[in-house]
Structures are given as structure tokens and as C-alpha cells.
Design brief:
mainly beta; Pnp Oxidase, Chain A; 3 domains; ten-stranded antiparallel beta sheet; 26 strands; elongated
Length: about 350
Amino acid sequence: MSSNKGILAGVGTAMAFDGAGNLILKARALTDSGFNIGTNSEEIRGGQGAALQGKYYHTTSFSVTLKDAVTDLNYFALQVGGIIKSGGNIFTTDEIIVESENQITVKGNPKEFGEYGIIGWYSHPNDDTATTIQFEGKTANAPGVRVGEKLCVTYVETSDSARAFEVATAFIPSEVHLVFTMPLLNASAIKKTDTASQIGEYIIDVPRFQFNGSVDMSSTSTSAASGDISGTALQAGVSGCSGKGYYATITENIKNKDEFDNVYAIVVEDSDVDLRQGESQTLRVMKLYNDGTTPSVVDNSKLTFTVSSENSGSTYATVGANNGKVTALSANGTAIIEIKVTEKPELTASATVTVMGE
């Protein structure tokens, strides 16, 4: 019997996609990753002693916590539903030598700052006191400055390489398709040939993920701020015929694991087949697992089908060796179809085919 148990530790990666499937962020330096699934419940009590008759569960939730050591402007914009645009105003400081008496000319193109107009500030090197000046084009009047003086001049200009977004006073966090992984480490030897400490991963796929709308950035002289990309899963739609929606899909991916490692038996879905002469039917084989996994269909190309030599079965039916298609031949006879897993012959099953007249 094989086991999938492992140790969930460390962090993986996270990816987010927009509505068109474009990859809009990828976090490779996570410091914190995880999810929480919860529901609220109400006790149903009655009778003597107010005995507990049952519990009613409601208000489900699926929350995700992700923090990245490396920040990205997208993290902030997505949290507040902002739209990043190219170009933005930045502060520039030029070191200049005064060429005209009482005038300062800078290299860039000063822009308006707030409601103050096109202003700037100049000071002498190593001087903390600055004087405000008003620009016209690249030049500003600065009474008292002399030709040849070295000055430090700060002003606002537009940089085409910058990016910016506005934080609105009323905002709704963005919604993306989020996929992130969590490493699964070795807890016991699954195979004698295993040497890797990481045996696999959990893949958490959240089709509708909404950021939590909170940005708390702070750092000190001896620490760095991390980018928070946490949020909550929204109902992604209906799965199956139950009418119930779902939040996410959690997939366990064990590396180097064989498809039949946790399979203890195979069975034919319809093991008693009645066919008339000339009719055909393809057998459907199911895998039964020893770890509680729901039975699933085996691809017939991974199986070997043969007609048993007992009772001259080949006289009454034939079967495709790798596709499981049974065809009835002579009437009024029975053929036994033997089935084996090609790569694991100890897993076997059989089906009985009864051929009737037309």
C-alpha cells in the first residue's frame, strides 16, 4: 500500500491572470502562503436536556494569505482596484552651475506640483535650507545667485518610464484568477529510489479571487516591507448537477508517482455483457483506490485485453488488445474477457460476454 502523506512546509509560487488569461503577476519570493477554509454552524437542540439533535452549517469561506518579499506595483493597484498607467510625475534634482546672474536653468522640463504652479527649490550643496522658485519653461528667476555658483535644484517633471495609479476615495478590490502552490516534503520513503526531500506540491486554483482591499506598507532602516496579495475566494460557478458553486480546486501533485500506486483493484463497470451476433461494445474499466479517492476510469490504452482460451471463447467473441472493444461472433456462446494493467500485471479483472442469436 502506497501513502501520499507528506509534510506541508515552506512556500511555493503564485500566479494571477486577468479576464483574458494574461499573466499579470508572478510571485516567486513568497514569505507567507496558505489558505483557510471555514464555515459557521448552528446547534439544533430540543427535547429533555436540550439534547443536540444536529448541526446546521452555513456561511462558508475560503481565504488566502500570500506575502511576497519582493514588492510589485501591481500588488497595490490590485488591492484597491487601481489602473496602472504609463508615465508619472517624479522629483528630479539637478546639480547645475549658474550661467546667468539671478537666473537658474535646469536640464529637464518642470511640471506643475499640486496647486502651487510650476515651482522648484534650490539650495547650495550640504545646505538643508531651500529657496522656492517659479519656473517659466526651464528657467526661473533667483535673485542673489551668481554666475559660477554650484546649486542643487529640485523640481517635478514627467517621466515616460514611470508608472502610476490613483487610489480612489471609494474603491473595490480587483478580481483575478489565482493559482499558487505549496510544497509537500517527504514524510516517509514512498519508493526505495526516492532521494528528494520535496516529493510534490499542492496546487490551489482559485478561479475567482478578490483581493482583501488592504495595503499596510512599512519598513525600517534594518527591515524591508513585503507585498501583501491576500484575499478571498468568490463562488466560481456551479460544479456538476447539484447546483452548488465552488471556491477552488486543490490538486495534489506527487512527483514520480505512478498512476496505479494507490490502486488496489480494477473492475469492469459492466462485467456481464449481452451481445447479439455482429454487435460490439467497448468495455469500461474503473480503478479502485486504497486511500479514499473516488473510483476513476482507466484509459484502455494502458490495459491489455485477451479472450480466455477456456470454453473456446474466441469462437464466440473477439476483443481489441488495447482498446477493449468486444465484437460478438457466433451465437449462443460465452466468452470470458481477461483484463490486466499492462505496467502492473497483478491488477486484473474480467468480463463475461454472452452472445445471442439475431
